[in-house]
Amino acid sequence: MTTGIVSKNILIVGGAFGGLSALKSIINNITKNQTAYSSALSNKNILKLNLDITVLEPRNGFINILGIPLALLDLKHANESYFEYNQKTLNLPINNTLNISDSIIIKINHIKDRCHRLYSDHAITSSNQVLNFDYCSVSTGRTRNWPLDPKGLTRLQFVDEMGQSLKKIKSANSVVVIGGGALGVEVAGEIKQHYPDKSVKLIHPHANILKEPKLPKEFAEKSTEILQNVIGKENTLLNTRVLDEIKKGNNKNDGLITLITNNPEHKEIKADLVYWCNSHKNNIDYLKFENSPFLGSLNQFDQVRINNDCSIKGFEDKIFAAGDITDLDFVKSAGGAMHCGGISGDNISNVIFSEFNAQNLPKSFITLPGAHMSVTFGNKSVITCTGEGEILFNAPRALMKYTDYCNKLVSKKLDLGLDSRL
Ligand SMILES: Cc1cc2nc3c(=O)[nH]c(=O)nc-3n(C[C@H](O)[C@H](O)[C@H](O)COP(=O)(O)OP(=O)(O)OC[C@H]3O[C@@H](n4cnc5c(N)ncnc54)[C@H](O)[C@@H]3O)c2cc1C
């Protein structure tokens, strides 16, 4: 008996590293296996499968967030870091159909909105639209302080925001960056590289910057030394915590700022501009609300608990998660988000056709002794820790990658059209 036409809905929440990788891998996997998948359909007496993939993402495009430290200072780079969701850039028909074969037709939609609530088979957007799904992948990343987490949704708004930030940097004589993680170090390094005459201080509560349990001690020590060379030893305030921030005048964004610290030698630090690079929050409010079915799938750090196949615990074979919001025990990275997103997409397409084995995260992902990580001090100096724990300074490949903060690399990995960005 022929079942006829079957429709399936896939919802992708968050359209950046994890989300776009999931989207691309669904399409690539189905395209690559179209013959096998088509016969899997015919074995089930299905004549035609209509696959509706909806990307729920408030932005008009994808921002390569890695390059924010440079985008704050270089508007051309900001512009180049924004990849609009259109056919030319995504190399996929957006809000249009893609005929994979006579029996498989895919439609990709972009809904420019936020996920407000997620349930086991539908989502509710911020504007109360109900989106039913059969399968879902979530990769909503983290929120940081402005301007490190841009608010603008369009390219124009994003570049404008970076422009506002640049204006503030230009008019400031002294800048203080709080937090010696990768973000703080890159912001401080870039500002100093662009404006060597400005005073740039970095305040960090520990004895060394870039202290990560998965990174060797030597990485943190060497990085501290490099930062001290770049911004000055006297401007690298270690073992120092900011207790309060007092702003002069009514307009909280302008004027002289006094930072009160616990360091007896630097009790008060004056600055024209302060960047708080010390905190982030996982974007999981849409999973964490009263009576949410996902409460048991979140851990105490507001991370989404996932299985090796990137499905969310308790929602196996149906809802997947990738990227910064997951509970994977490694330094969160764009590469990690793309890898998990890819696995989520592969597994969603595998589940739909129910013919193939699930893909799992490679063991090395979790068990590598070190974390692969590169951090710049201004994009002309880069420190790298390889997965094997080797520490390299200014390795040619890393230097090349960071001349554009991985714009080319990311566009290659996500198969995005580079030249259509502008
Ligand atoms: C300044 C900076 C520099 C970095 N440098 C590096 C680096 O050099 N190398 C590296 O590997 N990693 C780096 N990282 C980390 C890397 O950027 C993250 O690990 C990566 O972005 C995670 O990808 P993701 O898809 O999980 O989330 P994100 O890239 O944060 O994307 C999340 C997406 O979800 C959307 N979203 C959020 N909430 C909702 C909602 N409720 N509904 C719908 N959509 C939503 C957002 O708009 C966004 O587009 C850096 C991070 C920052 C901030």
TrEMBL record:
This protein's record includes keyword Transport: no
Q: Where is the FAD/NAD(P)-binding domain?
A: 9-326
Which Gene Ontology terms cover its molecular function? electron-transferring-flavoprotein dehydrogenase activity; flavin adenine dinucleotide binding
List the Pfam families: Pyr_redox_2
For this UniProt record, give its keywords in alphabetical order, as a comma-separated list. Answer: FAD, Flavoprotein, Oxidoreductase
Annotated Gene Ontology cellular component terms: cytoplasm
Segments forming a coiled coil: none
Q: Which family does it belong to?
A: Belongs to the FAD-dependent oxidoreductase family.
- What's this protein's name? FAD/NAD(P)-binding domain-containing protein
Q: Which organism is it from?
A: Ascoidea rubescens DSM 1968
